[in-house]
Specification:
Order of helices and strands: HEHEEEEEE
CATH superfamily: SspB-like
Strand content: 25-35%
Number of domains: 1
Helix content: 10-25%
Radius of gyration: 17 Å
Strand order of the largest sheet: 2-1-6-7
CATH architecture: Roll
Number of helices: 2
Number of strands: 7
């Protein structure tokens, strides 16, 4: 076992820089999807803290997922946008047949995965002030006809399915 007490303490925030660089990969993937759509069988599992400042989700979803939620961007989503200031993205999804728009700051992300290529990232989240519950929102518009054909409603899934187990 290594003794970390002999390790010099860094005055440079390497951990924070690494975390920022990894989040940039998720941002770039979302920006690509905004501009070009999702190619082939690529799809994203995005896990985020629902209790972080700036997260905007319907009250019924916040009640069901008070801390963490995973969304899937695959066949049935619309109005995906990525903003740099403030750093966040928004997307339209359907939950139980009810259209909703979610706004998620990149700082709230705890995971990003593209299971098609077995790629995944985990992020640390610094606890912030709890998000305010949102009022019910009007339904978002349905997907445009030019998008891929819907193949069922959005799902909330566990990323444990895609984690490699250490034997």
């Amino acid at each position: 076992m290594d003794d970390d007490s002999t390790q010099p303490r860094s005055e440079l925030p390497y951990d924070a820089w690494t975390e920022e660089a990894l989040r940039a990969v998720a941002v770039r993937a979302l920006e690509y999807a905004v501009q070009h759509g999702l190619p082939g069988e690529h799809h994203f599992y995005i896990t985020f803290r629902t209790d972080q400042p700036g997260v905007v989700i319907p009250a019924r979803l916040r009640a069901k997922y008070p801390q963490e939620m995973t969304i899937v961007l695959q066949h049935q989503f619309w109005d995906l946008t990525v903003e740099q200031n403030p750093p966040r993205f928004s997307v339209g999804l359907s939950f139980g047949g009810v259209s909703s728009t979610l706004v998620i700051p990149f700082a709230a992300l705890t995971g990003f995965a593209d299971p098609h290529v077995r790629f995944g990232l985990r992020f640390s989240v610094v606890p912030g002030e709890p998000a305010e519950p949102e009022a019910p929102e009007p339904p978002a518009p349905p997907p445009a006809p030019a998008e891929a054909a819907p193949q069922g409603p959005a799902e909330v899934v566990s990323l444990d399915t895609f984690r490699r187990r250490k034997d």
